């Protein structure tokens, strides 16, 4: 199974356009959005090309291909604009060998883990910091932020292709982080 991950769009139309272009080229089955889709949040500066309603208009035609979770900046008002559900605090994707636990990162995260089995993957956003690593018996994966990167990082997104989780730079597709998730 091939999946694409984007997090922390925060209403940026240029970032959304880039993500959708890469998704169309990727052959990924699902676009997994890890929250903070439309609103920039009170602690963040406005991202480049801030246009929440237009972001919703661009994402909505792909509603049947999007799996999303609610971020700390997402609200019921945002859901009114989007044609795919965003109010679940977490979702799960089951592969043949492991579970991917999807969450934004403000409720569950590396320091507050949900119940996971050995080999499972915690997939989260929220920090805007890319991560792909094994910690103990589980894997941690954060695709970073497509619109407001932090910690000196560039805007980024993630891919699961087979047993490899990778974080790529949004603009030039350089690999930022990767981990192999063998069962």
Automatic annotation (TrEMBL):
Checking InterPro entries in the record gives: Calcineurin-like_PHP_lpxH, Metallo-depent_PP-like, MPP_YfcE, PdiEstase_YfcE_CS, Phosphodiesterase_MJ0936/Vps29
Q: Which GO terms describe its molecular function?
A: hydrolase activity
A Pfam family this protein belongs to?
Metallophos_2
- The record's top EC class is hydrolase
Q: Where is the Calcineurin-like phosphoesterase domain?
A: 1-162
List cofactor names only.
a divalent metal cation
UniProt KW Lyase keyword: no
User: Which Enzyme Commission number(s) are listed?
Assistant: 3.1.4.-
Which controlled-vocabulary keywords does the entry list?
Answer: Hydrolase, Metal-binding
Q: What is the protein's name according to its record?
A: Phosphoesterase
Q: What is the lineage of its organism?
A: Bacteria, Pseudomonadati, Pseudomonadota, Gammaproteobacteria, Enterobacterales
Gene3D superfamilies tied to this protein: 3.60.21.10
| Family assignment from sequence similarity | Belongs to the metallophosphoesterase superfamily. YfcE family.
Q: Which gene encodes it?
A: yfcE
């Amino acid at each position: 199974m091939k999946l694409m991950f984007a997090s922390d769009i925060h209403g940026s139309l240029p970032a959304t356009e880039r993500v959708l272009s890469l998704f169309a080229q990727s052959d990924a089955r699902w676009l997994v959005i890890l929250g903070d889709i439309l609103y920039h949040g009170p602690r963040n500066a406005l991202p480049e090309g801030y246009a929440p309603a237009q972001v919703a208009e661009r994402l909505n035609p792909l509603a049947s291909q999007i799996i999303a979770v609610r971020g700390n900046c997402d609200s019921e008002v945002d859901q009114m604009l989007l044609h795919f559900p965003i109010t679940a605090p977490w979702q799960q994707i089951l592969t043949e060998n492991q579970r991917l636990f999807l969450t934004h990162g403000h409720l569950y995260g590396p320091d507050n883990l949900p119940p996971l089995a050995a080999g499972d993957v915690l997939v989260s956003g929220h920090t805007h910091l890319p991560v792909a690593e094994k910690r103990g018996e589980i894997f941690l994966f954060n695709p970073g932020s497509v619109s407001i990167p932090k910690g000196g990082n560039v805007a980024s997104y993630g891919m699961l292709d087979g047993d490899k989780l990778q974080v790529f730079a949004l603009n030039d597709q350089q690999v930022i982080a990767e981990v192999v998730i063998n069962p």
